[in-house]
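Before relying on records like the one below, remember that each one covers exactly one chain. Contacts with other chains, cofactors or solvent are not represented anywhere in the record.
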Amino acid sequence: MDTSTALQFLLLPAGALGVAALARRRGWPAPLILVVAGLAASYVPGVPDYRLDPHVVLVVFLPPMLYSAALDSSYLRLRDAARPVGLLAVGLVLVTTVVAGFVAHAVVPELPLAAAFAFGAIVAPPDAVSAVAVGRKLGLPRYALTILVGESLFNDATALTAYRVAVGAVTGAAAGLLDIGGQFLLTAGLGVVVGLVIAYLAGFVLRRLDDALIANGVSLLVPYAAYLAAEAVHGSGVISVVIVGLYLGHELTRTTYGTRLLSNAVWKVADLVLESIVFALIGLQLRPIIAGLHGQRPGELATYAIVLFLVVVLVRIAWVPPSTFLPRMLSKRVRAREPKTPSWQNVALTSWAGMRGVVSLAAAFALPTNFPQRDLLLFLTFAVVVGTLIVHGLSFPWLIRRLGVSTARERYADDLAEAGAQQAAATAALARLEELTADGVLDIHEEVVEQLRSRAERRALHAWERLGGGTGPGGEETPAALYRRLRREMLAAEREVFVRLRDERRIDDEVLHRVMQELDFEEATLERT
């Protein structure tokens, strides 16, 4: 690699991070600003021609981004929301594929129906990265966020499977309806199996690594191992990565505190870098895509783009409310399993959170060079992706504020549950301290015991208020070393209580992660006291 090529390689992430830094400082939606900056930069003289390589996106960028999102998700909440997530990640994707395909076939001259279905599959899966980021910042309720995250984790697998079937039909590898259904189930099933195997092996290794740097180095390899292993046996690499991320995220409490603290920082940095590059790349595709359009009239291109953009948006709006309320109206089992009816505000926000992302563009660029109307389909995909990012990206924060949704009740319930859990954990920690100091088993300075008692009590008190080793000269343990050792024992007892209460569904995963982080930070400070 010569110097000029290396500089071009460095310019993209450096520029993307610079734009992301400006957006974060100003409080602007970073994905939208990055796309707009990429659009503008694509016509700046001297900017390299960055062509999006679909294999790089699907193999290099997609696995860690999916893994990080799954790692930060709640398996328990996703399990509770399995029905609405499935209706979006599978049902809506397939419906969008069919409707967008028929409309594209009707409005675009000489576009075969199978090729139109391939386009429908390309633009079907939303990318909820920016919607979730905005929703968390502005207080979107947890249930709505869970549905958006779950949809974004699993819809790519549905869309890519439908895409492969449609492309196969165009290129001559046609299949019957039963074969298509069987292929989908086989691909998904293999992805689940491979994901479970990789998850078990990765968990086995990570639980036995005491070196936080090595453990997180291994963690960086896990999503690639899951994706490539599943693809090697013709399974869904996307589903495999998601399964591994959900499993390891649920089991993260079994790793060392150093691994957990470093993992949080590692994946936040990885997300920032990868997402910044990806959204900048989306904008930078304008010039090469326009260059591929020869003999197309601008008026016709604009008409096709507007019609298909509206179709993609309106299909989601038409699908979400009935799929949310009709099953509850028609099935007692659904009402019993999901006693809380979603508010119409949450349904409206879910209907509008349909931003498309880089997976759609990668799939479009992966179309064979002799694919019918390939250049036009690339342009239409780009128009839908950028159109949803700009329209939804600009209006989604306004809609959240306009509908007046709030997480105030959830925050109060979390604080109340945490206070109770902190009290139970402090009781367990003090009981463990009494066991260790009873009957004179250990020669302990009384002030050490009092400090430990006071610290445990202060932690529980702080939660309620939120609502409204070395050796001495003779080889004996010094008070400071003894304090550290006993406090670690108490922290271990507290962690066991929090995990048990999470598993019993008495506190939420977000509460668990918050208190575990506090305990981890405290344990980290013990190393330096």
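Residues 147 and 380 are 28 Å apart (CA to CA).
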